[in-house]
UniProtKB/TrEMBL annotation:
Record Pfam families: DUF1206 (PF06724)
InterPro entries on file: DUF1206 (IPR009597)
Sorted UniProt keywords: Membrane, Transmembrane, Transmembrane helix
Domain DUF1206: start-end pairs: 8-73, 90-158, 182-250
Stated name of the protein: DUF1206 domain-containing protein
Record-annotated membrane-spanning stretches: 7-28, 48-69, 90-113, 133-157, 178-205, 225-248
Superkingdom: Bacteria
Length: 253
């Protein structure tokens, strides 16, 4: 399980690096590529031995999902890892990773996967609208995603990520802390933006208002800060990828 977790963390880091790189290109005018997990898989597939690399990422993410599942069921090794809220957080991480790994493996096998996160978000919102009180449920889910984003920013600023790190060499601690803060803040901001669009879709009762990762990142370029905000968030996502590499190396056992 430890080997699977480290492999999965590296694979997840690669995905974040690619998404960040695609978003950075978008900030500088290249809008032809999709800055989400699907776009990252397609970018990876274009590289030498791309098919093998996509398989490696998919299997790694599956191993990481399994490890998060054991944390949800048995508790984690980090402080307070057996508390219900920590187990719930591990279960949520497991669900996200399971979806990503399934998509990557399907893409590698040539049976789909790699689809647009924007289309998936709109489709999911539309299905929720079809449920009883679906509009209110969609709004609640959007608010929950916004809350997760804000909480991710707070946790990053509080250096909560240190709970999962084992002993890090003294000369590298500040660098790893910087990666953890920058990456956590960037991911939290993207979550908050995506959740805000789901809330907007619920208010307007229009599933087309919901946006996935790609459109959420593009929306950042439309703020008063312009493409510079998108560039900063893109760099943050890439730094989070590097933090995941560090976590794979010095993870608390």
């Amino acid at each position: 399980m430890e080997a699977a977790a480290r492999w999965g963390l590296v694979a997840y880091g690669v995905v974040h690096l690619l998404i960040g790189a695609l978003a950075l290109r978008m900030a500088f005018g290249d809008h032809g590529r999709q800055a989400d997990s699907g776009g990252a898989l397609r970018e990876l597939a274009r590289q030498p031995f791309g098919g093998f690399l996509v398989w490696a990422v998919g299997v790694g993410l599956a191993g990481l999902a399994l490890w998060r599942l054991t944390e949800a069921l048995l508790g984690a090794a980090r402080p307070n890892g057996h508390e219900p809220k920590e187990r719930l957080r591990a279960a949520a991480r497991c669900a996200v990773l399971a979806v990503l790994s399934t998509s990557a493996i399907a893409f590698a096998a040539g049976s789909g996967g790699g689809g647009s996160s924007d289309e998936q978000s709109r489709d999911l919102t539309s299905r929720v609208f079809d449920l009883p009180v679906g509009r209110w449920l969609a709004g609640a889910l959007g608010l929950a995603v916004v809350g997760i984003g804000v909480w991710s920013v707070v946790r990053a600023l509080r250096h909560a990520f240190r709970e999962e790190l084992g002993p890090v060499p003294a000369r590298l601690r500040r660098a790893v802390d910087a990666l953890g803060v920058a990456g956590g803040v960037s991911r939290g901001l993207v979550f908050a933006v995506a959740g805000g669009f789901v809330v907007q879709a619920a208010v307007r009762y229009d599933p087309d208002e919901a946006k996935g990762l790609d459109d959420s990142l593009r929306a950042l370029a439309g703020t008063p800060a312009g493409p510079w905000l998108l560039a900063a968030v893109a760099l943050g996502l890439m730094l989070h990828g590097l933090f995941l590499f560090a976590l794979a190396r010095w993870h608390r056992g």
